[in-house]
Amino acid sequence: MCFIACLFISVGIMLEYEKSGELKTKSIDLLDLGPSTDVSALVEEIQQAEPLITASRTEQVKLLIQRLQEKLGQHSNHTFYLFKVLRAHILPLTNVALNKSGSCFITGSYDRTCKLWDTASGEELNTLEGHRNVVYAVAFNNPYGDKIATGSFDKTCKLWSVETGQCYHTFRGHRAEIVCLSFNPQSTLVATGSMDTTAKLWNIQNGEEVLTLTGHSAEIVSLSFNTSGDRIMTGSFDHTVIVWDAGTGRKVHTLIGHCAEISSALFNWDCSLILTGSMDKTCMLWDATNGKCMATLTGHEDEILDSCFDYTGKLIATASADGTARIFSAATRKCIAKLEGHEGDISKISFNPQGNRLLTGSSDKTARIWDAQTGQCLQVLEGHTDEIFSCAFNYKGNIVITGSVEPRSWRLQ
Ligand SMILES: *[C@@H]1O[C@H](CO)[C@@H](O)[C@H](O)[C@H]1NC(C)=O
Ligand SMILES: *[C@@H]1O[C@H](CO)[C@@H](O)[C@H](O)[C@H]1NC(C)=O
Ligand SMILES: *[C@@H]1O[C@H](CO)[C@@H](O)[C@H](O)[C@H]1NC(C)=O
Fold first, then answer.
1. Cα separation of 133 and 156, whole Å?
2. pLDDT for the residue 413
């Protein structure tokens, strides 16, 4: 048995050029290239942004893009192709995360390790060993990307150097499994959420516990900072979400309204809104400044497993155990599209940073790319033979990584 991660890369062109005698490369993404794209106009646009393409190269680049366009035509809307199948761990993966540029990523595993991978080569860069039980939550301190935090069922969190794999600190104090974690935006603190019903903040310089957030009556399963790092929000199986002052640990708001376990809780881009998803089949939208419920988003016929905002905060996407995803307008709170096609639970949903695509991962073994305006399925990403429980875009939106448990062996492609 082995367990894998798949990487999907979108179409683009790679420019090779010489600069002071050195051969350099630069990639240009063509995320929106389609059969009807005006290639001449596109090349003009690229030239304006890329002084590397001189007039003498125009025809060459045009031909290159035309050839890509023909290929796209043959493969309908298949803009992502399966780039790598990675034999990641001896035991199943738990979670995956990319660094900001997407040039490397990490996988957590039931084999008690976290592995660091080079995206381009598929090469394993490092294995972070030391936990005594499942490594469940993994995170980079993006945008810096020089540190990794791992949260384990062994009740500890470890902080690691990306460059050397050295363990800087082991944070001890939780009385049960750590299932979620996050760096603050300044990358000075790590927050951990645990089955022991508390969250803790840790100082990454000296390794000391800064605060314990006590107030939930059941497991904490989601945790996020607001953009300035002054507030931290925890979502719990006790059906509530609490917003805390990250400096003092004081409870600022308790969001009460859901009538089942919380599955996700997050801020929108300017932190004016909070979106919560629950096993009660609804999502709720809250005013982040006063903690009041503004709307309940209904329509799903089963538990909400994940939800997200796009980066402008105009759209909301929800994923459900009913096998569908939905797009809501944040302004009108109306459902504007229903994403149908998956044949199993959808456990993950995210917008690409450009906001024009949605990525979903499902127990039907596929991930899908959707048009975020129309809800049309643009591509089915196949390559796994078991449930996909984790998937993510990189910052540029041209790389997708999916994590799954695989019941049979794979070769590197
Ligand atoms: C590709 O996607 C576009 C919308 O982005 C759609 O109009 C077109 O029908 C799709 N083509 C195929 C072959 O699915
Ligand atoms: C991502 O990781 C690679 C490899 O460690 C590194 O070279 C690159 O600078 C990182 N990028 C960001 C934005 O963190
Ligand atoms: C985070 O929360 C604090 C306290 O409400 C607020 O002052 C700050 O503006 C918030 N950050 C953002 C980016 O909204």
1. 10
2. 23
Written as six digits, the tokens of 387 are 């449930």
Continuous segment of H or E residues that includes residue 15: strand 12-19
CA of 284 to the centre of ligand 3 (A): 20
> Does the Cβ of 355 fall within 6 Å of ligand 2?
no
How many residues does the structure list for the chain?
413
Q: What angle do CA 242, 154, 190 make, to 5 degrees?
A: 45
Whole-number Å distance, alpha carbon 97 to ligand 2 midpoint, is 13
Please report the DSSP string for 110-160 in residue order.
Answer: TTS-EEEEETTT--EEEEE---SS-EEEEEE-TTT-SEEEEEETTS-EEEE
**Which amino acid is present at 144?**
Y
CA distance 304 to 222: 14
Amino acid at 335: C
272 Cα to the center of ligand 3, angstroms:
8
Taking the model in full, what pTM does it have?
0.78
Query: What is the phi-psi region of residue 313: left when phi exceeds 0, alpha when psi lies from -120 to 50, beta otherwise?
Result: left
Give pLDDT tens digits for 69-93.
Answer: 776 555 444 466 665 555 555 556 6
Higher pLDDT, 51 or 265: 265
Omega of the bond leading into 51 within 30 degrees of 0 (cis): no
Q: In the 8-state DSSP scheme, what is residue 69?
A: H
